[in-house]
Write a structure and sequence with these properties.
single chain, alpha/beta, Arc Repressor Mutant, subunit A, Rossmann fold, 2 domains, 7-stranded mixed β-sheet, two-stranded antiparallel sheet, 16 helices, 9 strands, binds S-adenosylmethionine, S-adenosyl-L-methionine, Hydroxyneurosporene methyltransferase CrtF, WH-like_DNA-bd_sf, methyltransferase, COMT_dimerisation
């Protein structure tokens, strides 16, 4: 590389890489406490990348075996655990030790085990276990990672999400499975979105791609008067009607079944929400949908709220740039977008006063708000 002509950002990375590639540097670093500290930290990070799949499968095994529910009952020996989860003694001991090393379990000095801090967090968020269970499909696809990158949407995961298929009259097993998965992980997303966005003043709200209606039930508790509309594919709309029927505010909900690209959008809405929708779709669909929303909102000078995990301007978001980037490729449609990409899309489709609301948990969601001129 021609060092003197390259920008500073390139030169210092080039220098850093040359130092890290030099075995003499590593030998020297190990002689000093601070050097050992950084060397250990860097080695741990690299090892975690190397072993990540095994860690994930320890988690999957614990969830499938019901290990964490058993540990939540209190201190337990490996033999008791083996009986409770139905695995052989040796397999159970290994699963317990691996779980303890990952903070999913804690090992006590008498050799028994209890639930660990990550295990407790897992049980507190049932959506995570649902997410881990459905990862079987993407792990199968990623067993050959190059093939997965060569063939977009050509594997098992794409079969789970049937957005591209025809909208049948009745929900299929797949529709029910992905809608249940979305519902299970919605509470965290809704709590964070509605913490940073004040929804109380709106009178007629439409949630597009609203799934089983879980997000709208959170809206209902924060806004006591608004009419609440949901639009989703016909098959999912049937599931939403069923789920919302027994809700105490059921009289305020109206469910519309249809494709968001051509179904009539209820008029007179002052707020439309898109929760975990845009990242699932390619650019042409996103632009067409935003254009429809901007026309639907314009007469009432309305607001659009977008809430979903986003990519980072410098590709440093593990959830956006690593997880969703690869996941959506395997799914065969969509990509995570940065807030500035979404902002450009919003400007092109007639929105203004676009604001990025920073959530405390970008791992669950980020939010953008825009208004029609
Ligand atoms: C990732 S899920 C998100 C569901 C919900 N908003 C949430 O966050 O839990 C995407 C939703 O968009 C719906 N969807 C996808 N394509 C659609 C289309 N063309 N028309 C209407 N709904 C669509 C799906 O059926 C699904 O319910």
């Amino acid at each position: 590389m021609n060092g003197s002509k390259a920008p500073f950002a390139v030169r210092w990375r080039d220098r850093r890489n040359r130092i890290l590639l030099d075995q003499r540097f590593h030998k020297l670093a190990m002689k000093f406490g601070i050097g050992r500290f950084f060397a250990r930290r860097s080695a741990q990070k690299l090892f975690d990348l190397t072993a990540g799949f095994i860690y994930s499968q320890v988690l999957a095994a614990g969830i499938r075996a019901g290990l964490f529910e058993h540990l939540a009952k209190g201190p337990t020996s490996p033999a008791e655990t083996a009986r409770a989860i139905g695995l052989p003694d040796d397999g159970t001991r290994r699963l317990l030790a691996a779980s303890a090393s990952l903070d999913l379990a804690d090992k006590l000095s008498d050799g028994r085990f209890m639930l660990g801090p990550q295990g407790a967090a897992l049980l507190a968020n049932p959506g995570i276990a649902a997410m881990v269970r459905h990862h079987d499909a993407i792990y199968a696809d990623l067993a050959d990672p190059l093939k997965a990158l060569e063939t977009r949407g050509g594997g098992e995961l794409a079969k789970l999400w049937d957005y591209k298929g025809p909208d049948q009259d009745r929900p299929t097993g797949e529709t029910e499975r992905y809608t249940a998965l979305m519902t299970a992980s919605q509470d965290l997303v809704a709590a964070e979105t509605l913490r940073v966005f004040n929804i109380s003043g709106y009178t007629r709200i439409l949630d597009i791609g609203g799934g089983s209606g879980r997000f709208l039930t959170h809206v209902a508790t924060r806004n006591a008067n608004a009419e609440l509309h949901l639009l989703d594919r016909k098959t999912v709309a049937d599931l939403a009607r069923e789920a919302l029927r027994s809700h105490p505010a059921s009289h305020r909900f109206t469910v519309h079944g249809g494709n968001f690209l051509d179904a009539p959008l209820p008029d007179g809405c002052d707020l439309i929400t898109l929760v975990r929708i845009l990242h699932d779709h390619d650019d042409d669909i996103v632009l067409a949908l935003l254009d429809r929303i901007s026309h639907a909102l314009r007469p009432s000078r309305g607001t659009l709220l977008i809430s979903e995990p986003m990519a980072d301007e410098r590709a440093r978001s593990r959830i956006g740039d690593a997880y969703f980037n690869i996941y959506l490729h395997a799914m065969g449609t969509g990509r995570p977008r940065t807030p500035s990409e979404l902002t450009r899309f919003l400007e092109r489709t007639g929105f203004s006063r676009i604001r990025h609301l920073s959530t405390g948990m970008p791992i669950a969601t980020s939010a953008l708000v825009a208004e029609t001129r």
